[in-house]
């Protein structure tokens, strides 16, 4: 049965989408907005170089480690309630961070932000999942939502540059209070709790502990690889520990009566393929964004605000790819027909970025590459996020949505650390092999910049390979049909018949 005929549609669902999108933007941009302000915060609070990484890592650890728990909270206690709790908590911890008087206070506030973000993000996406059930409307809604999810990182760079340059670094945190206040008003006056679909099973405490510890250990291990190297005892211990903990988590989920993550959510071929393809694409995207930012500011000498505005073409491309191209084609073609070309287009744009040089031009290389990169990522994000929550049982909508956020959050942490290590190693080798050519201070400066650019170029090659791998995953695993027929009606053979779950209206 088509979900559109089984339960009435919320007449205010498009208004709800606006508030959900605003909340998602707040969570996503917070991963990068503070990065721009970090040097100013470090000077103001006297943060040591050793503790500086914790401003970013604390947020990522709490967010990545608690996402599955946050998704199950939404399923168990109500999506609207979890959405409001996440918003209020995120706003409060942001205000606490903005008022920080020392390093510990700021790090603690960032950890709290991540914890409440882990409740907020899956609650927002699961609300979207259960509110938009008609195929064509769902396609449009996910097009908008995925464009914001993908472009939010670039928006964070732009907004962070504006606030840091014209206000104060503290406003990169205070601004969340305004975003959250608007979204809370929407939740109170517009959003209603969707009927049915609750999961009142007891909480899977062993699963919560194992998933949280395993994901946090994975994120921390990759963050330490960037600073300490892959062979350091801390890095190896965390990565090995994460593998063991996550393996135990899978074992517990397979045998548990009320698992935190029912394995049917991820073992479905299409959803599993969407999670993996999206995660690989995010690894490449976050790494590429980092190196373009460093190239613009360190090599080309752009100010924070100018470098942030330089990412506007990527946002434009991603909006176009998600809301124009993918929205029009997804009802007519299988998702992989968008995801595979999208990943390959983004990979080609990343290869263009390997052409950067010390005396290079933003207009000739970076701008067209960012525009095309955004277009390709829009074609990946929109169908992947749609497919990852398609036909999931209502009682699992929160945890399925949490898996999308987990792919993004863990992928971003891995991408930044993995590609930074690649770039730093390549730069060191280049500098060592050309050291004999640096006979003066000016020559030494040029060598340093040349080595840095060489390292960035190698990292872009790796990012392109990861995007190619994402295309291969989509081509191999994703076999779902179009979401709807050309007449706009749901196509059961293309949807629920291909999955192991029942449609959203199943009890």
Summarize the structure.
Residues 16-482 form the Major facilitator superfamily (MFS) profile domain. With 507 residues, the protein is mainly α.
Task: Please describe what this structure looks like.
This protein is mainly α and 507 residues long. The protein folds into 2 domains: 10-203 and 260-492, Up-down Bundle (Growth Hormone, Chain: A), CATH 1.20.1250.20; 204-259. The protein has 16 helices and no strands. The protein has helices at 13-45, 49-77, 79-98, 103-131, 135-166, 171-189, 205-228, 233-255, 263-267, 269-299, 304-309, 312-329, 336-353, 362-388, 397-433, 441-477. Helix 2 packs antiparallel against helix 3. The longest helix is centred in the C-terminal third of the chain and has 37 residues, at 397-433. It is globular and about 75 Å long. It starts with 12 loop residues before the first helix and ends in a 30-residue tail after the last helix. Mean pLDDT is 86; it is low at 1-5 and 485-507.
Kindly list the characteristics that best describe this protein.
Growth Hormone, Chain: A, disordered C terminus, 507 residues, 16 helices, mainly alpha
Tally the beta strands: 0
Oligomer classification: single chain
Based on CA atoms alone, the radius of gyration comes out at 22 Å
Query: What's the overall average pLDDT, rounded?
Result: 86
CATH superfamily of the largest domain: MFS general substrate transporter like domains
Counted by DSSP, the helix tally is 16
Largest sheet: none
**Helices and strands: which structural class?**
mainly alpha
How many separate structural domains? 2
Could you tell me the CATH topology label of the largest domain.
Growth Hormone, Chain: A
Approximately how much beta-strand content do the residues carry? under 5%
Distance from first to last alpha carbon: 13 Å
Shape: globular
Quick one: CATH class of the largest domain? Answer: Mainly Alpha
The helical percent reads over 70%
- The SSE order reads HHHHHHHHHHHHHHHH
């Amino acid at each position: 049965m088509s979900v559109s005929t089984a339960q009435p549609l919320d007449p205010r669902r498009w208004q709800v989408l606006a508030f959900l999108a605003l909340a998602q933007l707040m969570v996503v941009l917070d991963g990068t907005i503070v990065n721009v302000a970090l040097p100013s915060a470090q000077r103001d609070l006297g943060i040591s170089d050793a503790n500086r990484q914790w401003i970013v890592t604390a947020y990522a650890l709490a967010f990545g480690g608690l996402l599955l728990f946050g998704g199950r909270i939404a399923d168990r206690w109500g999506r609207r309630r979890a959405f409001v709790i996440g918003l209020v908590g995120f706003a409060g911890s942001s205000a606490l961070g903005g008022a920080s008087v020392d390093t510990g206070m700021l790090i603690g506030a960032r950890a709290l932000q991540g914890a409440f973000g882990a409740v907020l993000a899956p609650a927002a996406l699961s609300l979207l999942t259960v509110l938009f059930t008609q195929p064509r409307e769902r396609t449009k809604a996910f097009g908008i939502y995925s464009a914001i999810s993908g472009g939010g990182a670039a928006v964070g760079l732009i907004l962070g540059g504006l606030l840091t340059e014209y206000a104060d670094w503290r406003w990169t945190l205070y601004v969340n209070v305004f975003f959250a206040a608007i979204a809370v008003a929407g939740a109170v006056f517009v959003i209603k709790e969707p009927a049915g679909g609750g999961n009142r099973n007891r909480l899977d405490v062993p699963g919560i502990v194992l998933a949280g510890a395993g994901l946090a250990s994975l994120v921390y291990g990759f963050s330490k690889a960037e600073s300490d190297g892959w062979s350091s005892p801390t890095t190896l211990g965390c990565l090995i520990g994460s593998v063991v903990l996550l393996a135990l988590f899978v074992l517990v989920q397979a045998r548990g009566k009320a698992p935190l993550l029912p394995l049917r959510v991820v073992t479905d071929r299409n959803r599993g393929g969407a999670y993996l393809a999206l995660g690989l694409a995010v690894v490449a995207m976050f790494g590429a964004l980092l190196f373009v930012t460093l190239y613009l500011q360190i090599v080309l000498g752009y100010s924070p605000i100018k470098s942030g505005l330089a990412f506007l073409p990527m946002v434009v491309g991603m909006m176009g790819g998600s809301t124009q191209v993918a929205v029009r084609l997804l009802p007519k073609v299988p998702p992989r027909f968008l995801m595979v070309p999208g990943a390959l287009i983004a990979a080609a744009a990343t290869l263009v970025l390997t052409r950067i040089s010390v005396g290079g031009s933003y207009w000739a290389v970076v701008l067209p590459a960012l525009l095309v990169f955004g277009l390709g990522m829009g074609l990946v994000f929109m169908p992947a996020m749609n497919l990852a929550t398609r036909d999931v049982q209502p009682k699992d909508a929160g945890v399925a949505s949490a898996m999308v956020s987990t792919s993004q959050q863990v992928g971003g942490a891995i991408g930044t650390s993995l590609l930074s290590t690649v770039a730093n190693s390549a730069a060191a080798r280049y500098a060592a092999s050309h050291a004999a050519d640096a006979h003066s201070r000016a020559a030494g400066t040029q060598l340093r910049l040349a080595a840095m650019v060489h390292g960035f170029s190698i990292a872009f090659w790796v990012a392109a390979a990861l995007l190619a791998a994402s295309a291969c995953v989509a081509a191999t695993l994703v076999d779902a049909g179009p979401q709807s027929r050309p007449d706009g009606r749901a196509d059961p053979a293309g949807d629920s018949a291909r999955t192991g779950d029942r449609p959203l209206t199943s009890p």
